[in-house]
């Protein structure tokens, strides 16, 4: 399928002349520095401290997303109850939207994996070695933070905003916890037959 917007020189020139996006440099925002500080805490902390900080991320995301999810669940249930065919249409639409989000957000997924796995790997190595000198830990933390900084710059060049990126990365543990929760609790089937 051809993408007429990318192939048309007229559309490109018209959009470039009439639309100007003025964004402040994302590296200078508080959200960028917050991500670097949180990453530094993860990279410097022990495995126990890392899991504690990740648990705090889960609680923050649950507080923010929980009420919104309850409201959306109520609206969705209302629509499905009164207009059953709408349920199939909404399910297809949400499936396609989620599929598109996953395809578009591979860069964010890569950065999120770096954000959580590099400190975890460093914490595991420190727990195993136990006699690692302090300067080696500080070098590891510094190089890891510099690596994250370059990853974030790469995302900013691909039109990511630091505020939404911060929220996406912080809410990753919550999304993983939700992913592993059972969708429903099954009833225990009784094999006993009752006689009336």
Summarize the entry for a quick read.
With 196 residues, the protein is an all-alpha fold. It has helices at residues 4-7, 9-18, 30-44, 47-82, 84-104, 106-129, 134-157, 162-170, 172-180. Helices cover 78% and strands 0% of the residues.
Low-confidence stretches: 184-191
- Counting DSSP H or I runs of 4 or more residues, the number of helices is 9
Distance between the termini: 66 Å
Approximate strand percentage: under 5%
**Cα-atom Rg, whole angstroms?**
23 Å
Shape: globular
Q: Level of helix content?
A: over 70%
* Helix vs. strand class: mainly alpha
Give a structural overview:
The protein is mostly helical. 78% of the residues lie in helices and 0% in strands. The chain contains nine helices and no strands. The protein has helices at 4-7, 9-18, 30-44, 47-82, 84-104, 106-129, 134-157, 162-170, 172-180.
């Amino acid at each position: 399928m051809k993408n007429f917007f990318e192939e048309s020189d007229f559309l490109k020139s018209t959009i470039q002349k009439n639309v100007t996006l003025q964004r402040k440099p994302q590296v200078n925002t508080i959200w960028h520095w917050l991500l670097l500080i949180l990453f530094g805490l993860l990279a410097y902390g022990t495995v126990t401290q890392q899991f504690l900080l990740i648990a705090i991320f889960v609680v923050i995301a649950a507080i923010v997303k929980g009420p919104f999810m309850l409201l959306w669940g109520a609206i969705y249930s209302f629509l499905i109850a009164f207009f059953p065919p709408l349920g199939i249409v909404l399910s297809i639409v949400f499936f396609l939207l989620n599929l598109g989000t996953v395809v578009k957000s591979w860069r964010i997924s890569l950065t999120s994996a770096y954000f959580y796995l590099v400190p975890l790997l460093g914490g595991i190595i420190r727990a195993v070695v136990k006699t690692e000198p302090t300067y080696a830990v500080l070098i590891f933390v510094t190089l890891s933070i510099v690596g994250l900084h370059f990853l974030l710059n790469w995302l900013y060049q691909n039109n990511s905003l630091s505020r939404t990126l911060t929220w996406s990365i912080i809410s990753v543990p919550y999304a993983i916890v939700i992913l592993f929760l059972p969708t429903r609790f099954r009833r225990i089937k009784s094999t006993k037959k009752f006689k009336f």
